[in-house]
Specification:
With about 190 residues, the protein is an alpha+beta fold. Among the domains are: about 45 residues, no CATH class; about 90 residues, SUI1-like domain (Translation Initiation Factor Eif1, 2-Layer Sandwich), CATH 3.30.780.10. About 35% of the residues lie in helices and about 20% in strands. It has a 6-stranded mixed beta sheet, covered by helices on one side. Pfam families: DENR_N, SUI1. Belongs to the DENR family.
Length: about 190
């Protein structure tokens, strides 16, 4: 005769009251993590590994900040700027902070018409809608703010104005230095200055 099936024992999270294996889909997974590491380590083995890595990172940062001589303190200062440039994403991926630069690219359509794209003005605090209006008026052409292939907003200006635009940008927005403006020519980034 077959045995009667026994009820399954479900472990519920004390923080969000969901079953432990569903905490990651709940509203406060960050708050649940310490409880899960302590009470359900077999459910989320990645949490334990991440906690160990964070602890190791803290120790390595402390070791880097400790210096033997006066020169080490200066080196420690450079490591903090590197730390600001790098941002850790979930899964251990690293995202670098965007450099403040304006990239100008000329795209040829139908072998005759050109479109000049301006990317990165928003990093300097320039409002893109105002900038597109000013560019359209200055060069007597159509200019609009569009989403580029990387889902970031850029300005498309009709016509080949790539070399006249550098002077206009530096005069109109003094916060944008000329050494931060680049052209894309033949797939390579070239400094405008």
């Amino acid at each position: 005769m077959a045995e009667k099936p026994q009820p399954v024992q479900v472990l519920y999270c004390a923080v969000c009251s969901l079953p432990a294996e569903y905490c990651e889909f709940g509203p406060d997974f960050e708050k649940c993590k310490p409880w899960l590491i302590e009470n359900a380590p077999e459910t989320y083995p990645d949490l334990i590994r991440d906690a160990n890595e964070k602890e190791a990172d803290k120790v390595s940062e402390q070791l880097q900040s400790v210096s033997v001589s006066g020169e080490g303190a200066a080196a420690g200062g450079t490591s903090t700027t590197k730390q600001e440039e790098v941002k850790r994403l979930p899964g251990g991926k690293i995202k670098k902070k965007e450099k403040k630069e304006v990239v100008i690219e000329k795209v040829v359509r139908n072998k005759r018409k050109c479109v000049t794209t301006v990317k990165g003005l928003d990093l300097f605090g320039v409002k893109l809608s105002d900038a597109s209006k000013k560019l359209g008026k200055k060069f007597a052409s159509g200019a609009s703010v569009v989403k580029g292939p990387t889902e970031k907003e850029q300005i498309d200006v009709q016509g080949d104005i790539s070399y006249d635009i550098v002077e206009f940008i530096t005069e109109t927005w003094p916060d944008v230095p000329e050494n931060a403006i680049y052209f894309i020519e033949d797939g390579k980034k070239v400094a405008a200055a």
